[in-house]
Every structure is written in C-alpha cells, then in structure tokens.
Amino acid sequence: MSTAVKEQSAPLKPLPFQWQFLAGAVAGVSEILTMYPLDVVKTRFQLQVGTGGADGYSSIGDCFKKIIKNEGFGTLYRGIIPPIMVEAPKRATKFAANEQYTILYRNVLGDDFNKQALSVMTGVSAGITEAFLVVPFELVKIRLQDKGNAGKYTGTVDALSKIVRSEGPLALFNGLEATLWRHATWNGGYFGCIQGVKSAIPEAETKNGNIARNFVAGAIGGTFATMLNTPFDVVKTRIQNQSKGVVKKYNWTLPGIAIVYREEGFRALYKGFVPKCLRLGPGGGILLVVFDTVSTLIRKHILVEA
C-alpha cells in the first residue's frame, strides 16, 4: 500500500477553528464566483407566480436571454455583494460548525455511533447555526435580484439603508424561520449523502483520484440536498421579498408551502429547481474539493502534525 493510501486511510484530526474558517471561506467564495448567475435565475423563477405572463420565463435559457437582452449582462451579478460579504463566514461556519458538532456528538454518543446518522445530525446542526448568520444578507440579495426592484435600489448599501429606514432593523430577519428550514435540510442532506457516497466509493490511490472522489461525493450530496430543501427555499424567497406596506401573503414556512401548493400546484414548490440544482450540484462538488485541497495545504505547509 502506498504512503498516500495510508495517509488517506488514517483519520485526520480536525483543523483548529481558525484554519477551518479559512478553508471554508476560500471554498465558499470560489463556488459563488463560479456559479452566481444561476442563483439570480433561480430567484427569478421562485418569485414568478404562475407563468409570469408575457414577461415570464419559460426555461433557464429563456431567462438568461431575457435578462441579458432587457436588463444587461451585469444583472446576472446583481446582488452579488451581500452573498460575497457573507459567503466567507457562511461557508466557513458550515464546515467549521460541522467539524465541531462532529466532535461534540462523538463525545456524547461514542465513536461507534452510526457514521451516516452522525453526518446528518451534524449537518442539520451546522445548517441551523449557519442560518442565523445569513438571513439579513439573503434578504438584501433577494430584494436586489427581483426585477421589480430594479429602480428601487441603486446597490447593496442603498438597499440596506432603505430597508432599515422604511421597515426597521428587525425586517432584516424576515424569513428567519424559513431560512432555518432551508439550511437544516440542505446541510443534513449534503453531509449525510457525502458520507454515504464516500462509503460506497473505494478510496483513491492518487491525488487526482481523491479530488475526483470528493467532487463526485460533493456533487451528488449537493443535488440530493437541493431536492430536499427547494420547497423551503421557494417560500423563503417569497417571504423575504415582501416589503412593508403590502399585505403579507406568506408568513410561516409550512403554511406558505400549503398556499403555493394549493394555488399553483406541486410543481411550483420546485420553481427554480433546475438552475438551483445546476448551481448546487457542481457547486457542492467545488465546495468539497476546494475545502479539502485548502485543508491539505494548511496541514502540509502551516501545521505540523504530531
């Protein structure tokens, strides 16, 4: 057996928190810079009630075409500042919290506890932790991505100041409950699925093989997690786009899901699923590969393993 295989077979000690934070930050920013336009398209579909009329979007290609033609190419990156600002701490929190919850639960439940169940538990816990951090940034991002707000906000700072001034600072936490649902289900599905896929795929004997294994596990995990959490994401998007002065149609997640289902049918609960899946499937692979690669570099060049 090669040295590489021996190293991969031996369990690695979790990185210290500050290095987990750095690795998660690099992974998150890498993913968002690559995949962000699909997030804009996803939001447009989720805000579209029914077919959206003459200006509605019929497909991903149609959405991209209409956005670029009617609003300009730069609109595909409109609202990117809030997620970039939160992406580093958000992704860092995702991976760091997952590592810390893993240590906590192993101490409580024992090392022989079912690994996949442990991965789901730690993922859900990490997702709940992450949700509290991202809510204000998600709300500002969604307001900026909505084409109906194109002339309302000139940019991130303007949107933030107008929301706080007209709706109050607590408005930044509208949709917290829906965000908790969204992040808990995504992270639980993502980390649980990764554990299952990695258990089924033989360990690689080369560095490139290990990268490919991580990408496949992350991509499958991201796709599965997206299937689980899209209905919660649809309702979260609609809750956070409701500004002060309008009668709020969506208030809580489960009643909101029921309203969408009753008025628009089951398929409406998966509006934006394809662009979301195209982003978070490969995006999940990018996250895992970059996080693992940065973690390996930190262990090799910065930390001295005992």
From TrEMBL:
Q: Which UniProt keywords apply?
A: Membrane, Mitochondrion, Mitochondrion inner membrane, Repeat, Transmembrane, Transmembrane helix, Transport
Q: Where are the Solcar repeats?
A: 15-104, 114-200, 209-297
Intracellular or extracellular location(s)? Mitochondrion inner membrane
Note whether Repeat occurs among the keywords: yes
Q: Name one GO biological process term.
A: mitochondrial ATP transmembrane transport
Signal sequence residues: none
One MF annotation (Gene Ontology) recorded for this entry: ATP:ADP antiporter activity
Q: How does the protein associate with the membrane?
A: Multi-pass membrane protein
How is this protein annotated for GO cellular component? mitochondrial inner membrane
- Enumerate the InterPro entries for this protein: ADT_euk_type (IPR002113), MCP (IPR002067), MCP_dom_sf (IPR023395), MCP_transmembrane (IPR018108), Mito_2-oxodicarb_carrier (IPR051752)
Q: Does the keyword Repeat apply?
A: yes
Family statement: Belongs to the mitochondrial carrier (TC 2.A.29) family.
PANTHER family documented for this protein: MITOCHONDRIAL 2-OXODICARBOXYLATE CARRIER (PTHR46356)
Q: What is this protein called?
A: Mitochondrial carrier
Organism (species): Lunasporangiospora selenospora
